[in-house]
Amino acid sequence: MDIKQIQDLIKFVSKSGVNEVSIEQKEFKITIKTNQAPTYVTASIPAAPVQAPPVQQQIAATTPQVTAESKVPVTPPIDDTSKYITIKSPMIGTFYRSANPEKPFFVNVGDEVKVGQVVCIIEAMKLFNEIESEVSGRIVKVLTDNSSPVEYDQPLFLVEPI
What we know:
It is a single chain. By secondary structure, the protein is of the alpha+beta class. Among the domains are: 3-33, no CATH class; 85-161, CATH 2.40.50.100. The chain has helices at residues 3-16, 55-62; strands at residues 20-24, 29-33, 85-88, 93-96, 112-113, 118-124, 127-132, 137-142, 148-150, 155-161.
C-alpha cells in the first residue's frame, strides 16, 4: 500500500464517521482511529408535567420599553472572506508551521506565496507531508495553531490572490 492509498483511506475513514478501521495484509498492518467520541443514546421516561409559574408575565414586567425614537439600527461587522482563497488540509494529521521548532515558519501573515511553495507540514502516521500552495497570493490569515490536530479539508490559511 503506497502513501496515496493510505491518504485516500484516511479521507474515507474521516468522512464515513467510523471510529476505527484495521487492515492487515501479508506485509503490513494499519489501524486508523479517529478522535470522535462514541455516540451513546440514553432514554428516560418523562415525568408527570409540573405546572410552571407564568414566565411570560415576569419577562414582560422586566423588559424595558423601547420607543421608535430610541431604536438604533445595529449592523454587525461583516467579515468578507469571499475574496480570499482558502488553503485546506488534504489529510488528517498534526499541523506544523515550520520544519522543526528551531526553524522559522514557512509563511507568515503578509508573506507572498507562489504555486508550489511549501506553506506547512502535516504529520500523518509518522510521515511528514509538505503542503504546497496551489495559488499565488498574499497570506491574509493563519487559521490553525501550530502543533494542533487538523481534519481533512479543514481550512489552514486565507490567501488574497495576486
